[in-house]
Amino acid sequence: MNKTSGGFWRQFSRVIPETEAGDYLFSFLKFIRVHKRLPNRSMTFNDALFRAKTAPEILNPLRVFLTDKEFFKIFVSAVVGPQYVVPSIGILRSEEDIDNFIFPNSFCAKPTHMSGLVSIVDSGSVDLSELKSWLTMNHYPISRERNYRSLTPKVIVEPVIFGQKDITDFRIFCFEGKAKLICLDIGKYSDYRRAFYNVNWERQAYSIGYPIFEDDVPRPRNLEEMISVAERLSQWVDFVRVDFYTNGDQFYLGEITNCHASASQRFNPLSAESIASSSIFGNIAP
């Protein structure tokens, strides 16, 4: 979604009541505008996400807990072990915390309560005003994803993973506790593209939301371990995305995402949505 479109939905969200009915209306109209059709009851990728976003299940306490990037680390440590957790250098809960914190020369900062915002610093020069602005934000009014609504604003400071500023994200879609499809986000801060593979590391000829990354990506040496961890983390919720960073030998968990892109990304080509949906859900008929 381009910035102009994003601005439209921010403005539109301001006139829609922040109620369960208002959230449904906002999400329903956004789905129609993005996908040029009505949502339906099939197990098609975006329809399944739409239902996950608008149903009471999105307020499952575990889903809300996992949405917070600080609490997510607690869950990962308890379920699969602390060796998969990105170390936290600091958790900043106020502007005073930000002013008084001694930042390292190289670090990554993220708001624990938002989606997609990040500041990667490798020069020691920190934009404190950006970090402070995150403390006033709430992702819920922007996306109407209710699992974000009650989160407490915080900023988490971490090392730059594997020393790479533009590291590839490995995102494993899981359904009913089983890994089904793998999405690679490549060049997120330069030339954003995506590649899809099945769990046997066979290339899929489609993308979603971003152009297709045309080159083949070598199979990670630790793929089986990543899949095993994703399945262990996803067994309590029916459909989630488990995100990883890896150098092929070691990996860390990034986050668990309840509703990929808020059900608002189209497949490229559009016909691939049924292919991807079958890979994840099997029979996609209503």
Short description:
With 286 residues, the protein is an alpha+beta fold. 33% of the residues lie in helices and 20% in strands.
Descriptive overview:
A hairpin with a 4-residue loop joins β10 and β11. It is globular, with a radius of gyration of 19 Å. It has ten helices and twelve strands. The protein has two domains: 165 residues, ATP-grasp fold, B domain (D-amino Acid Aminotransferase, Chain A, domain 1), CATH 3.30.470; 71 residues, no CATH class. 33% of the residues lie in helices and 20% in strands. The protein starts with a helix and ends in a 5-residue tail after the last helix. The longest helix is centred in the N-terminal third of the chain and has 16 residues. By secondary structure, the chain is α+β, with helices and mostly antiparallel strands.
**Which spans have pLDDT < 50 for at least 5 consecutive residues?**
none
Strand proportion: 15-25%
The gyration radius over C-alpha positions equals 19 Å
- What CATH architecture of the largest domain do you see? 2-Layer Sandwich
Features:
four-stranded antiparallel sheet, D-amino Acid Aminotransferase, Chain A, domain 1, 286 residues, 20% strand, 10 helices, six-stranded antiparallel sheet, single chain, alpha+beta
Helix-strand layout with pairing:
Blueprint: H1 3-13, H2 20-35, H3 45-54, H4 61-67, H5 69-79, E1 90-92, H6 95-100, E2 107-111, E3 119-121, H7 128-134, H8 139-143, E4 155-158, E5 169-175, E6 178-186, E7 193-198, E8 203-204, E9 207-208, H9 223-234, E10 239-246, E11 251-257, E12 267-268, H10 272-281
Antiparallel strand pairs: 1-4, 2-3, 2-4, 5-6, 5-10, 6-7, 7-8, 9-12, 10-11
